[in-house]
Amino acid sequence: MGDKVITTEGLTKKFGDFTAVDNITFDVEKGEIFGFLGANGAGKTTAMRMLCGLSIPSGGKATVAGYDVYRQTEKIKENIGYMSQKFSLYEDLTVIENINFFGGIYKIPSNLIKKKSDEVIEKLGLQPHAKKLVGSIPLGWKQKLAFSVAILHEPGLVFLDEPTGGVDPVARRQFWDLIYEAAERGITVFITTHYMDEAEYCDRISIMVDGRIDALGSPTALKKQFSSDNMDEVFYRLARGAKRTE
Amino acid sequence: MESIVVNGISKWYGKEKLVALKNVSFTVNHGEIFGIIGPDGAGKTSLFRILTTLLLADEGSATVEGKDVVKQYKQIRNEIGYMPGRFSLYQDLTVKENLTFFATIFNTTIKENYHLIKDIYVQLEPFNDRRAGKLSGGMKQKLALCCALIHKPTVLFLDEPTTGVDPVSRKEFWEMLGKLKEQGITILVSTPYMDEASKCDRIALIQNGSILATDTPNAIRQSFDLMLYKAKSHNTALLLKDIRHYSKNLYAYAFGEHVHITFKAGEIDIEELKMNLIERKHHDIILEPDDATIEDCFIQMLRA
Asked: Do B136 and A245 lie within an 8 Å CB cutoff?
């Protein structure tokens, strides 16, 4: 085990006679940026829900941050960060209120929340917006704030579900600067994206097809394995063979 | 002849007058696929709602097929197809019921215009009796497109049809649009994905409610007036840091497996940069000129 933040062995989830996640086995190392790719409906969300302790597997084994996905789901939730494009912050709370709220949820002492809140606001250059409703600040900033809030409690691992969808190209790259910074501090990053250029920024990538992990490796290794010039091509080759359409 | 003419449209919201669109003008020709390309919050949906007669502009005017979006809104509604960004079909009606419903309100039948939707509908037909709310994302998208097409519109408005869709399905969707174009339908489509620009005949790049450029994708790429190099070494993250450290006269950013470096001609000596990187212990260095993509152009315009 040692420095493995996620371990899975034959992890499976069935809904009735439909196998959403089919016997997947992989590990994620500490401090790694791990890209979790796949077409819509390939089973990414179901797999992620199991790893976050939100859905009990039908079979197989998995640990996240050292905790078991069957019996220690509450422990998992305390020790991970999570951010998705669809929901991350309360739009009708201000920037500061959001930070305080999530800090409280993760049981950070209030004097420390204040300190961290100042740090985040300064680092992101959000001073002029600190008292504005989150719903009124530009998306690029919102996403950077959501990420900072997701790692406010310094989790060992953060799950990012399509964090950069719809974000402009400059803000998207600034977002990745934050990811790299977090990874350098030892926070493991587990990320899904539909931008294939972002797949290149990951240390390793897995590609899911019909509930299975059909490819796993560094971007360079995968391009070599599938004799492709870029990740786009690798993805097409694998996902085109998919039998199911979501 | 022009299919859509937009003339100095502005729109703001609420007491604080938050600006959604600032003096937007462009023209879409008949039979063209015209892309509105920009991130979330750029004003794309406000623009679509104004052109589909669902929202009034605060300034400016627009026509669709020669008809004014304010005075002749009823005629426009009969002629256009609109697929909003958010799924807007009846979740508790089946696939077939939804399609029949939309055909009926436009006084037509599925049979009459079947040829238009055939290619897309064949993939949906196995699910004819399934409720729309129970369809997968990709199937919902196909059904919404069929419903927008069933009355044989002359102009099709597609607001972010591929957002959140995986690269394979996105490619298939653009192939469908290509076939609709062959049928002579004018298509105005918005997207946050810069790589979809090349599928359009012409594009407008939009940010913060303003149009940054309007032209063919090629012409926009060719108007890029900086030097652009792509770089690679054994360690991309470190390479990016070291290149940025080398000079303030260049702008470097990650671009897939490469780093892109842009600068004004004559301000950077590439050979010297290469020597510098070798001194900093980079190996397997690639440093060569490259052509700007739409994304490079967009980044440059955001910085200007």
From this structure: yes
Q: Residue B165: pLDDT above 90?
A: no
Q: A152 by DSSP, 3-state: which?
A: coil
In CATH, the number for domain A4-240 is 3.40.50.300
Interface of B with A (CB under 8 A): 18, 38-42, 123, 136-139, 163-171, 192-194, 207, 236-237, 253-257, 295, 298-299, 302-303
Torsion sign, CA atoms A215, A221, A225, A229: positive
Considering only CB atoms, which chain A residues are within 8 Å of B236? 201
Condensed to tens digits (0 to 9), the pLDDT of residues B212-256 reads: 999 999 999 999 999 999 999 998 889 999 999 999 999 999 999
Average pLDDT, chain A: 92
Position A68 scores a pLDDT of: 97
Residues of B within 8 A of A196 (CB-CB) are 167, 256
Query: What tokens were used for B109?
Result: 């039948």
Q: How confident is the model at residue A1 (pLDDT cuts 50, 70, 90)?
A: very low
How far apart, in whole angstroms, are the C-alpha atoms of residue A172 and residue B301?
15
* Nearest CB partner across the interface for A180, out of B38, B136, B237: B237
Amino acid of residue A134: V
Question: CA nearest B224: which of B244, B205, B242, B240?
Answer: B205
Closest-approach residue (CA) in chain A for B192 = A166
* Residue A156 contacts residue A77 (beta carbons within 8 Å): no
User: Residue ranges of the domains in chain B?
Assistant: 2-216, 224-303
Q: How confident is the model at residue B263 (pLDDT cuts 50, 70, 90)?
A: very high
In B, minimum Cα distance to A232 occurs at B167
Please tell me which of the candidates B169, B295, B302 has its beta carbon nearest to residue A39.
B169
Question: Which residue ranges make up each domain of chain A?
Answer: 4-240
CB contact under 8 A, B39 and A239: no
**Topology, domain B2-216:** Rossmann fold (3.40.50)
What CATH number matches the domain at B224-303, 1.20.1200.10, 3.30.70.250, 3.40.50.720, 3.40.50.1100? Answer: 3.30.70.250
A174 to chain B: closest CA residue: B253
Asked whether the beta carbons of residue A38 and residue B194 sit closer than 8 angstroms, the reply is: no
Pairing of strands B33-37, B186-191: parallel
Tell me the nearest-neighbour CA distance from B255 into chain A, angstroms: 7
Of B169, B253, B257, the CB nearest to A173: B253
Q: Is B175 exposed, middle or buried (0-12, 13-18, 19+ CB in 10 A)?
A: exposed
Per the listing, tokens 């494009």 go with: A85
pLDDT tens, position by position, B59-102: 999 999 999 999 999 999 999 999 998 888 999 999 999 999 99
